[in-house]
Design brief:
12 strands; globular; 5-stranded mixed beta barrel; 5-stranded mixed barrel; 3 helices
Length: 254
């Protein structure tokens, strides 16, 4: 009877050990297995048919950056500047790289080498469109802050905005210098293609390029002058004055 009891206990212990080993092996296999890939985000279909828009094709030379490092457009090899809203610009580096061909559905500028892009197709057939998700917040570029970034070289072309107004220059080394519409008109003699330029201001510099809001600018460092940065807030009453706390257009404003 004792012999049978001891045999039964040994058999039960063996079963428990085997089960524990099997569970441990299954846990290890699960732990070592690659995590399942997340489901792709659903693409939002454009509300409007963008196909009838004029098509511009060309070779991408560089991305046009804002001083905060966002992609606001592209410069093509023929000098065309393509501008697009933030949502579209953020997706451009994923579908096309400098040196590759790109196709843009968009409105061409009248008398300016600019295109307002609404849809972009990369060299591998991937297409992105200007589709704003309903209720999404509109991105805002706050005034740039950070270390000073110098730019020295030769001007390649004027830098336009989406309305076709000159707001700075693009350098031959792909740097982008913003001075704002008012300064661009005042300093037009210095901002001609082929002219040398020295500028310094806050911005970004990295793999995608350089872009600054110029605070000092001139043909060279010895002739540089101070300018109000393109993103400087409008002048107002100084702190402590009677009008400092008055909000223009508010009920207390005169």
């Amino acid at each position: 009877m004792d012999i049978h009891r001891r045999s039964s206990c040994r058999l039960l212990a063996g079963v428990l050990v085997a089960g524990s080993l099997a569970a441990g092996g299954a846990h290890a296999a699960t732990k070592g297995a690659a995590a399942p890939a997340p489901a792709p985000t659903a693409q939002v279909a454009p509300v409007f048919d963008l196909a009838p828009l004029p098509v511009t094709t060309g070779q991408l030379v560089q991305f046009i950056l804002t001083p905060s490092g966002q992609v606001s457009g592209m410069l093509l090899a023929d000098g065309t500047q393509v501008f697009c809203p933030r949502e579209l610009g953020d997706s451009l580096p994923a579908i096309v790289h400098p040196g590759e061909q790109v196709s843009i559905n968009g409105l061409k500028g009248a008398g300016r080498p600019i295109v307002r892009g609404y849809a972009v197709t990369g060299p591998r057939g991937r297409r992105i469109a200007d589709v704003r998700v309903e209720g999404a917040a509109i991105p805002y570029d706050s005034p740039s802050i950070g270390p000073d970034v110098p730019v020295d070289g030769t001007i390649l072309a004027p830098l336009y905005d989406m309305q076709g107004k000159v707001q700075g220059v693009i350098m031959r080394d792909h740097g982008v210098v913003y001075v704002g519409e008012t300064n661009a008109a005042r300093l037009a003699g210095w901002l001609r293609p082929g002219a040398p330029l020295h500028a310094i201001g806050t911005g970004v510099t990295g793999e995608r390029g350089t872009a600054i809001n110029a605070r000092e600018i001139g043909p060279d460092v010895n002739q540089a002058i101070h300018v109000e940065p393109a993103d400087a807030p409008p002048p107002g009453a100084f702190p402590g004055s009677a009008g400092y706390d008055v909000i223009p257009g508010g009920s207390t404003a005169e």
